């Protein structure tokens, strides 16, 4: 007789993740998708795998002690959630931000498992970081923190074990300091971190990859709905965030003929006043500002920005952008509420894709999915989850790992072509899987959230079964 769980997989997971709301949200979003499809009817044994895949293989937690510029001892928490290695080494970013806790890192690591599976590359899923805040710190303070952080983390990672990357608060500066300390302690030059400098093992197109990938994915959404008759040309696009992802989304959209009408940060939103668009020069000014760890509020009254833009302090852009065709939440988790989702639909938004991880609340996803189901084709608002739409960043990280292993460097054109192929495969995989397991009514667009969740889940748990992780 085959063993079974004494309770349902969902009850088991929720009972073992109390006080972890972000992780529970990510888990329930996946679980509800699977339950509302035909997957468990066609493959009943997969239900037990759901509980297994939702528990990390390993969680590493440690203290990080460092000295500030005044000679005072500071202490932070460090983490690495090594969630799943069925498809390859653990792969996922490091986040340095005061909000970092185990729940957020478990949610990010859980999403990363299936995102990485959708790329088609041999990568498992993980996430890590610290509640350290790089903002307001000197480079020497950041260096001392990174040295202390990596002194412990280096015991648990490696090119064939776990390959972290950057995330919020971890730029090329931090990656360089982390890599240097790993190399000194381990006496080994290896591709243990991605997002490295181009002169010492980094990949071309890596900084641009997440933002470009989101745009490439949405291009396929637009072409699918319009039978190839439309593109980004002439589209008004609202973007939240102003970091790496948002910047390169904006630059690529402008290049493709679209208009970018908003960018934002944690203190407020910058919205174009009228029918215009951010220019590449304005986006680059903001990129320089963010590299200096400054806020958008510091430039809103300058001559270059005061006439063209409205600055809405303390607000996200969604209620203030007017008519838009595309919305790309690209700042952080849960940045689109149910009310904001309704407002975007009322503003004419037809495509929404997450540049951030779990950018939409469950209430917002429900609004978008209900609108898709109630309207046919081009009349619907079509939602794409982050695990598919923003997979371009980790995809090029995987390509960086491949280049490091082979001791070669591909050209920008080669990497960009591979990125475009991976994003097309992500889109087509989601469409095909949704049609098989959550077949929509005639004329209704397939659910990209259902298709992506099911496609990633199937691939991971099949490998886990082959390894004897469940039976």
UniProtKB/TrEMBL annotation:
The keyword NADP applies. The active site is at 127 (proton donor). Substrate binds at residues 91, 112, 115, 166, 397. GO terms for biological process: glutamate biosynthetic process. GO terms for molecular function: glutamate dehydrogenase (NADP+) activity; nucleotide binding. It holds the Pfam family ELFV_dehydrog. Residues 203-468 form the Glutamate/phenylalanine/leucine/valine/L-tryptophan dehydrogenase C-terminal domain. The keyword Oxidoreductase applies. NAD(+) binds at residues 210, 244. Keywords: NAD, NADP, Nucleotide-binding, Oxidoreductase. It catalyses: L-glutamate + NADP(+) + H2O = 2-oxoglutarate + NH4(+) + NADPH + H(+). InterPro entries: Aminoacid_DH-like_N_sf, Glu/Leu/Phe/Val/Trp_DH, Glu/Leu/Phe/Val/Trp_DH_C, Glu/Leu/Phe/Val/Trp_DH_dimer, Glu/Leu/Phe/Val_DH_AS, Glu_DH, Glu_Leu_Phe_Val_DH, NAD(P)-bd_dom_sf. Homohexamer. Belongs to the Glu/Leu/Phe/Val dehydrogenases family. This is Glutamate dehydrogenase. It comes from Aspergillus sclerotialis.
């Amino acid at each position: 007789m085959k063993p079974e769980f004494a309770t349902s997989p969902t009850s088991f997971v929720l009972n073992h993740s109390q006080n972890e709301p972000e992780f529970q949200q990510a888990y329930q979003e996946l679980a509800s998708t699977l339950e509302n499809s035909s997957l468990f009817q066609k493959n009943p044994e997969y239900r037990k795998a759901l509980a297994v895949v939702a528990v990390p293989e390993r969680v590493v937690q440690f203290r990080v002690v460092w000295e500030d510029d005044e000679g005072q001892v500071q202490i932070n928490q460090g983490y690495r959630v090594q969630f799943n290695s069925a498809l390859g080494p653990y792969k996922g970013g490091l986040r340095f931000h005061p909000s970092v806790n185990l729940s957020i890192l478990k949610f990010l690591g859980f999403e990363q498992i299936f995102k990485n599976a959708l790329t088609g590359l041999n990568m498992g899923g993980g996430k890590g970081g610290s509640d350290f805040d790089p903002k307001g710190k000197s480079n020497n303070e950041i260096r001392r923190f990174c040295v202390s952080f990596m002194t412990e983390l280096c015991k648990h990672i490696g090119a064939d074990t776990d390959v972290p990357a950057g995330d919020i608060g971890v730029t090329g500066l931090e990656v360089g300091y982390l890599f240097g300390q790993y190399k000194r302690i381990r006496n080994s030059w290896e591709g243990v971190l991605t997002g490295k400098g181009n002169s010492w093992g980094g990949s071309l197109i890596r900084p641009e990859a997440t933002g470009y990938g989101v745009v490439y994915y949405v291009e396929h959404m637009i072409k699918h709905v319009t039978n190839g008759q439309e593109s980004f040309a002439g589209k008004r696009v609202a973007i939240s965030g102003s970091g790496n992802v948002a910047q390169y989304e904006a630059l690529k959209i402008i290049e493709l003929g679209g208009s970018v009408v908003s960018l934002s940060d944690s203190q407020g939103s910058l919205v174009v006043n009228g029918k215009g668009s951010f220019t590449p020069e304005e986006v680059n000014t903001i990129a320089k500002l963010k590299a200096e760890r400054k806020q958008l509020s510091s430039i809103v009254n300058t001559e270059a920005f005061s006439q063209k833009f409205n600055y809405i302090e303390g607000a996200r852009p969604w209620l203030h952008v007017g008519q838009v065709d595309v919305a790309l939440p690209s700042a952080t988790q849960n940045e689109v509420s149910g009310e904001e989702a309704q407002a975007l639909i009322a503003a004419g938004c037809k495509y929404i894709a997450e540049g951030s991880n779990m950018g939409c609340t469950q209430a917002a996803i429900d609004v978008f999915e209900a609108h898709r189901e109630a309207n046919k084709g081009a009349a619907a608002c079509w939602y794409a989850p982050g695990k598919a739409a923003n997979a371009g960043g980790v995809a090029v990280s995987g390509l960086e790992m491949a280049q490091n292993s082979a001791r070669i460097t591909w050209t920008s054109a080669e990497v960009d072509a591979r990125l475009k192929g991976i994003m097309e495969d992500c889109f087509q995989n989601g469409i095909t899987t949704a049609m098989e397991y959550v077949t929509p009514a005639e004329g209704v667009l397939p659910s990209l959230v259902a298709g992506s969740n099911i496609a990633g889940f199937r691939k991971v748990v099949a490998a886990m079964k082959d390894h004897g992780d469940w039976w």
